[in-house]
Amino acid sequence: MTARFITFEGIDGAGKSTHIAALTERLSARGAVVVNTREPGGTELAETLRGLFLHSGMDSLTEALLVFAGRRDHLQRVIEPALAAGQTVVCDRYTDASFAYQGAGRGMDLAVLTTLEQWVQNGRQPDLTLWFDLPAEMAAARRAAAREADRFEQQDLEFFERVRAGYAARAAGAPQRFARIDASVSVAEVAAQISAVMESRGW
């Protein structure tokens, strides 16, 4: 099976985790060797930076620099080697999250994020991004029922609506790789949407 890079995106509480596991099973059943990973994180260094990112106060530029430093290490140590070996990488978040959270959410200059993207990634973008889209209010209710909030999850609804709008802007700019998933519906209905996307691509 051809190596592919697939990312899952969406505001906190969108319900990505269940479907990452299901997609991994689907791809594995079709002969793919799948590497599951996440951002921030994915390597020992990046996981250390993740802890700082989620639980230490800092400004938006510091957040972005930490994330892109971790992303560079993640690309070099995990993502690029896996793809070069013909494996499929399924990643919970990638650069779209930086544009949505630090850019749209925090109000950071998008030109700075674009420069960091160019420096760090050498053009590496996902082959497919599954964007789990749902209203901020619904996401907040799900988060409250599931876990204690981290530094980002404690943000107000207006913040998450800005993040959602940031994802919409990224999707509009790259319609060939984005697939919008209506994450407000049941788990089964979300799974059906993902299945339809994969079938449409012959995956």
UniProtKB/TrEMBL annotation:
<keyword id="KW-0808">Transferase</keyword>
<keyword id="KW-0418">Kinase</keyword>
<keyword id="KW-0545">Nucleotide biosynthesis</keyword>
<feature type="binding site">
    <location>
        <begin position="10"/>
        <end position="17"/>
    </location>
    <ligand>
        <name>ATP</name>
    </ligand>
</feature>
<dbReference type="Pfam" id="PF02223">
    <property type="entry name" value="Thymidylate_kin"/>
</dbReference>
<comment type="function">
    <text>Phosphorylation of dTMP to form dTDP in both de novo and salvage pathways of dTTP synthesis.</text>
</comment>
<comment type="similarity">
    <text>Belongs to the thymidylate kinase family.</text>
</comment>
<protein>
    <recommendedName>
        <fullName>Thymidylate kinase</fullName>
        <ecNumber>2.7.4.9</ecNumber>
    </recommendedName>
</protein>
<dbReference type="InterPro" id="IPR039430">
    <property type="entry name" value="Thymidylate_kin-like_dom"/>
</dbReference>
<keyword id="KW-0547">Nucleotide-binding</keyword>
<dbReference type="InterPro" id="IPR018094">
    <property type="entry name" value="Thymidylate_kinase"/>
</dbReference>
<feature type="domain" description="Thymidylate kinase-like">
    <location>
        <begin position="8"/>
        <end position="194"/>
    </location>
</feature>
<keyword id="KW-0067">ATP-binding</keyword>
<dbReference type="GO" id="GO:0004798">
    <property type="term" value="F:dTMP kinase activity"/>
</dbReference>
<dbReference type="InterPro" id="IPR027417">
    <property type="entry name" value="P-loop_NTPase"/>
</dbReference>
